[in-house]
Specification:
Elements lengths: L4 H13 L8 H26 L6 E3 L7 E2 L8 E4 L7 H8 L4 E4 L28 E3 L2 E3 L4 H8 L4 E5 L11 H9 L3 E6 L6 H10 L3 E4 L8 H11 L4 E7 L2 H15 L5 E5 L16 E3 L5 E3 H17 L4 E5 L1 H14 L22 H5 L23
Parallel strand pairs: 4-7, 7-8, 8-9, 9-10, 10-11, 11-14
Antiparallel strand pairs: 1-2, 1-3, 3-14, 4-5, 5-6, 12-13
Helix pairs in contact: 1-2, 2-9
Length: 388
Amino acid sequence: MKISKKDALIWFRFFAELPEDEPPGCRQQEIALAVFAQIETAVEARRQEMLRTIPGLMAVVPGAEKAVPWSPDRPACTLFVGPEERFPRGCHSCLLGTGLSAVRKTNRCNAACPFCYDFSRLDQIEPIGEGLWEIGGGRYREEDLDLLFALQGTPTGISYVYLEPFMEIEKYYGIIRRFHDAGVHQHLYTNGLNATPENLKALGEAGLDELRFNLGASGTADRVIDAMAEAKEHIPQVGIETPMTREFFRALEKKKDRILATGIDFMNCAELHLNDNNLGNYLGESLYYCRMGYLSPVFSRDLTLQVLKAAAEEHWPIAVHDCSNKTKIARDLNLAAREGGWFGQSDYGRETEGIPYGAFLPALEDESLVFAEEEELPAGYRPGEIVL
């Protein structure tokens, strides 16, 4: 059903008032899903128009080693602008290789970012364990890697995540050397607040291939920008990966020249997605579901596409990557396929315990978000009728 925006708003005001232990009934769920489809369709229509205005837009496509010019009719894993040789190899591994194998050690952070998936529970993250590393969901010691490689082969790439590795970065050098000796591409995420010339040099000597700075986590601090330039002296690929927020977008506009002068290779503009921990920080924004999975503010990817357009028109010397929710869908499909999953299998899905109907009221009240096609609801689904 192509529900009208007016009817959608009436129904969602009702759904928002339902007790948590009284979810919408079956027909009411049909109405809710119709509303989510209308919002997503309106958001995608806006983005298709924006994509058409970006010169030199390139697509990473399944089964091809080289990127191709973007076309709305060609299936793409992700999009970017700029020199292809500067597109991060870690992303290539994630989307076309053996996936994004996460290696975790540190359960602490020195920041508390509103966009963090663990916001409000940063002091409740369970430790991995002394001398242990979480790899692929299991827990191992460094010396176990040889057995893993012998039985399971070597992945095309791994990433060090969760929460801030530089809180105890000296523990990482040994395991980085082991993966490097095995020929595995490695990238590591940091907010950069604890980065020093000494530990950046040590990471490069250990064999780290790629370092990604969450520049937004520091408020785009000058000392972190300086650390990016220092990192480039020691590590082959250095870049930015930050959820695209209004704050980061404004900071990027102000400090663009200084950032580009660091010599970094890429900027991954991640589409901000929300869960139960950080959703409260973005209530009041227009939200949408991407294929009923990731929940995101509409503004996030809109801002990303503005950055891509500026980078293309101004010929920035870096690759600027549209790391959107659709990219995450492609990532999970690629990984499931490589694991022998059935057609359509994926771990991509909703990351909130329930559906926060009230959080969608701003989108339905947003006059700039226009439903492309509206129809009168069929009998039995209209406001004022008893629908269960």
